[in-house]
């Protein structure tokens, strides 16, 4: 039966079905293209948190002698699933260790755009001493346009490392300490931004996106668009399979 010979009612229904199918296809393709722009799981954090140790443990099953990284390192782990990633042509989960030294971090900001997910490693045994540096590093990541303002914000795993040490803070304490410090940091940065705006700084408007969370409320990790999970681990003494499992869970999402 030709299209012209169909009753007008059937023609309308068929046209609507084609329209709905086309819209669904475009939405699906857009979601895939948005997520496929990033294929790496970036390992972030300040120096001596255990990032490179985690990478070597993932790759070799043991920790190799490490030193402060001056350039990024990477490791591709075969996925346990037998189904290849249809739009990347690979079934490997790639982890990239980003140097944590504060002078080197700006060099790797562009790599955040390639992030499918973030593993933020911190030393939970030294957090009381380093909480400001840790909070600043995490804050800078969260306000990056590719992370906090992305159409599909990448998930974040905060890995509380060195829990084998006596001074290690519990996960709940780590979360609370970071929220408190990041709230202070947000106040400081907001005041600095207002100062620049009052002086007519042309670049001040770019800082508007750096406000983290909800205005008028103390900062909470629940306020950010990213799905965030806190996980305790001793990279030295435990199998980091939890990191691989988390990465695979978020490969398609």
UniProtKB/TrEMBL annotation:
Which example biological process does GO assign this protein? intracellular protein transport
Q: Give the main localization category.
A: endoplasmic reticulum
Keywords attached to this Swiss-Prot or TrEMBL record, sorted alphabetically, are: Endoplasmic reticulum, GTP-binding, Membrane, Nucleotide-binding, Receptor, Transmembrane, Transmembrane helix
This protein's GO CC annotations: endoplasmic reticulum membrane; Golgi apparatus
This protein's source sits in the domain of life called: Eukaryota
User: Which molecular function GO terms apply here?
Assistant: GTP binding; GTPase activity
- Residue spans making up a coiled coil are none
Q: How does it sit in the membrane?
A: Single-pass membrane protein
SUPFAM superfamilies in UniProt: P-loop containing nucleoside triphosphate hydrolases (SSF52540)
- InterPro entries, alphabetically? P-loop_NTPase, Small_GTPase_ARF, SRP_receptor_beta_su
Q: Where in the cell is it found?
A: Endoplasmic reticulum membrane
Pfam families per UniProt: SRPRB
Matches recorded under CDD domains: SR_beta (cd04105)
Q: Which stretches are transmembrane?
A: 6-28
Which family is it part of? Belongs to the SRP receptor beta subunit family.
Q: What is the protein's given name?
A: Signal recognition particle receptor subunit beta
